[in-house]
Design brief:
With 279 residues, this protein is α/β, with parallel strands linked by helices. The chain has helices spanning 7-27, 43-59, 74-86, 105-111, 123-130, 139-150, 170-179, 194-198, 244-247, 262-278, and strands at 3-4, 33-39, 62-68, 92-95, 159-163, 183-187, 203-206, 224-227, 231-232, 238-239, 253-254. The N and C termini lie far apart (44 Å). The structure holds guanine.
Length: 279
């Protein structure tokens, strides 16, 4: 029987702490704003963007939104980002991904001023993470670290296996665990003996984008299992990359889907926004 890591509660705690910080800063005359850009009307992106704006409202920071049509040119988008970079009333800028296929995603990310890149996607912020310097850290992996720390799960010296190597989750996740003095293995679609490697993990972090891929055969007795995936199954029910019912009896701690890692992403985005206007 595993203990459930309650991401909903932990994310609420973080947002409540931030709400207090924002109120204190306001008393000192320090206020900030987040600019949220969405290009096109991808339904999943619209939900994320709406939740990000709601979180801003909850903690008491202003959000400005740019809902741009699918046909927006790359040049037009770069022009808006440039203006926001120069706008002193805007502290954080995020462009919801994916952008339409006619745009170069990397070019868009690089256009955002690193000191306003609250998503932590800019190469300067990623580079800072690699060398252990200050910078914005990608929200989902930063959220996983908070889940572990706030659940009093020791990281130092543990063998952490990260399954998935995306720029947004897998790679920064591995770097953050390394920074916390874990011994880190990164696995991906070309990894041989995936099952055997996962079975060596004290902390198994799964971000592969395949529903219920990881079952009990991949998990060591007593391991901590963190599920970053989110999918809808055939019955329209949410599930993760981990087969929860199979893995839960073997794990010591596990994150549910929904209510595990998911709510942490926005909490950490809010954390980055507050950091952006405290600088
Ligand atoms: N698309 C999926 N996840 C994210 C995220 O964390 N930030 C942005 N900007 N787009 C995303």
């Amino acid at each position: 029987m595993a203990l459930l890591i309650d991401g909903k509660q932990i994310s609420t705690d973080i947002k409540d702490e931030l709400k207090e910080t924002v109120a204190r800063l306001k008393e000192q005359g320090i206020e900030g704003a987040l600019a949220v850009i969405q290009v096109g009307a991808d339904p999943a992106s619209s939900v994320y963007v709406r939740n990000k704006k709601k979180a801003c409202e909850y903690i008491g920071i202003r959000s400005v939104s740019y809902e741009l049509p699918e046909e927006t040119t790359e040049e037009e988008l770069l022009g808006i980002i440039e203006k926001l970079n120069e706008d002193n009333t805007i502290n954080g800028i995020l462009c919801q991904l994916p952008v339409p296929a006619h745009m170069d995603e990397n070019k868009i990310i690089r256009a955002i001023a690193p000191q306003k890149d609250v998503d932590g996607f800019h190469t300067q912020n990623v580079g800072a993470l690699v060398v252990g310097q200050e910078g914005f850290v990608s929200c989902t992996p930063a959220g996983v670290i908070q889940l572990l720390k706030r659940s009093d799960i020791a990281i130092e010296g543990k063998h952490c296996v990260v399954v998935g190597r995306s720029n947004i989750v897998g790679k920064p996740m591995a770097l953050l665990m390394l920074q916390e003095n874990a011994t880190v293995t990164i696995c991906h679609s070309r990894t041989k003996n995936l099952k055997e490697i996962c079975k060596e993990a004290d902390i198994l972090i799964v971000a592969i984008g395949k529903p219920k891929f990881i079952n009990a055969d991949y998990v060591k007795e007593g391991a901590v299992v963190i599920d970053v995936g989110i999918h809808r199954n055939e019955n329209n029910k949410l599930c993760g990359d981990v087969d929860f019912d199979s893995v839960e009896p073997k794990a010591s701690y596990i994150t549910p889907v929904p209510g595990g890692v998911g709510p942490m992403t926005i909490a950490m985005l809010m954390n980055n926004c507050v950091e952006a206007f405290m600088d």
